[in-house]
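Please predict the structure of the following assembly.
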Amino acid sequence: MTELTESAANEAEVNNEAGGGSKLASDYRRFVLKRSILLVVMMLVAVISLLWDVSTGPAELGLFDVLAGLIQPDQLEASTRVIIWDVRLPYALMALVVGACLGLAGAEMQTVLNNPLASPFTLGVGAAATLGASLVIVWDFTWLGLSFTYLLPLSAFVFATAASLLILALSRSLGANVHTVVLFGIALMFGLNAVVGLLQFVADSSALQQIVFWTMGSLARASMEKVTIVSSVFVVCAIWSTVHLWSLTALRSGEDQARSIGINVERVRLVVLLRVSLLTAVALAFVGEIGFIGLVGPHIARMVLGEDHRFFLPGSALAGAILLSLSSIASKALIPGVILPVGIVTALVGIPLFISLIMTRGREYS
Amino acid sequence: MTLSIQHMDVGYRTRRVITDINLPPIEAGSLVAVLGPNAVGKSTLLKSIAGIIKYSGDVTFEGQTLSSMPRHTFIRAMGYLPQTLPQATTLVAYELVFSACRAVRTDLSLAEIEHSIDAVFKRLGIESLALRRLAEMSGGQRQMVGLAQVLVRQPKLLLLDEPTSALDLHWQLNVLETIREEATKTGAIGLVASHDLNLALRFCDQLLILNRDGVLAMGAPVDVLTPENLRLAYGIEGRVEQCSKGYPIVLADRAIAV
């Protein structure tokens, strides 16, 4: 009898524990669910922005014409089909995927360098990619056996990686102080721009035009083939990043903390920066330099979703995609009949945001 | 489960901090306070055992040399709490602890992790912090979250570097009581670097006192915390007396020239 009561009491205790155990865990699940919903909302916003982007342009096509055209392309007039399928859709999709690449790259970079002002643009990785691209534009490297379409991103990648490694070496030797690294990035950007200027000086007129196009950043030469290349790289990098999700989240509690639980911080940092270089190079290879998306995207994602990287990384990619997509709409709508290079729009919007980030976040972290 | 340290040299590439550390074996379930003045190598010793900086010599745990342990066994055994607090970010406490488990303890199931987090948060009395952002917490609260992160993984070797440095009296006692209980219950070994001699006296089984010449003394608290050792380690004139409840307490009278 006593035994029975005892075992019943034990059972009650176990149940109690389990009940209590599910309390914190279920609170946390609710918390996670809220974030999942926010992520879905961001996806919807991205889709809406895409449709809006496709229906914006000099040719008067309403949203419904565009929707009908996307669903039943064979019912369209030939000219309208060309406008929707060969001009506007690649343009709008390119904005989304390039924005997503830059958003993801910026988020990962900010985490591994523990620096809220880090982004491919602010640290000169974008400028390095420009130099790589310019070299291929000015001199013919097709004797290497690769076509120009692949050679350009490849060269951009090599230079972007070199810049990332330089930043890594610097933050290791000087300590990753928020402002030191950003100042170094700015110096690097000026230096690289000077070299690109030199290349422009020696380039012939058609190469010069291409380089100028690069430095302005424009979606105008988007095609489905290019969209496919950029999306494939994005998908590969996004899947690859899932390997580091937990380590990156743990890294947010601090380098010492991460190291203390047995995470090989140096290795994670190196691998992630390689991925950042790849994303940046491929994203910029076809559209040229587009700044600030990789800086601002992660900040929006952090505000909305926090820093659990299961949400932060996709959220940042989505925020980047939405930002560039909206910029693309603005680039067509600001001056009727004129399509501005989108890089100019992102710079105009990004610079005030960047300055406000330096003033507020930079101070917090230093 | 024994921790044994023989002929251990710790330090950095350019500067040896402590040479030839030889300690009597530390038995399962015991708590050792690592004491000594600033810059004497307390943190360096803990970091070395935790595998964060290189050392030479023989350190064995459960009969296995630490340096030759398979990486995952090593990570599972170690529970190192660095002196730096978790940084103030938008991460919430639960995420920090959860992600640490997910990142390195792939052997634990989700239910096990949830159960362990729940038990530790409850034991430390920080359930109300679980969904708060670290950026909104005080230093002391972040230190508690950092400790929770270590305890949740149920390590067999606790290496705690000044776990109470940012805490008020209530939490200091709470933390030491928890660590004491954990060691006694699970047989884990704890090395706790501290500047608080009275907490060390009260909760630890042994004291390891370091000074500039290396290991000054190691043994039961009342045996090694003598006025002579206080003078040699800290350069103070001090006494160890009994309070009205019978606990030994250290009274520091004055600093003397060293």
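The domain at 2-255 of chain B is CATH 3.40.50.300 (Rossmann fold). The interface with chain A takes residues 50-52, 71, 74-75, 78, 80-87, 89-92, 94-96, 98-100, 102-104, 114-115, 117-119, 121-122, 127, 130-131, 133-134, 146, 149-150, 153 of chain B (CB under 8 Å).
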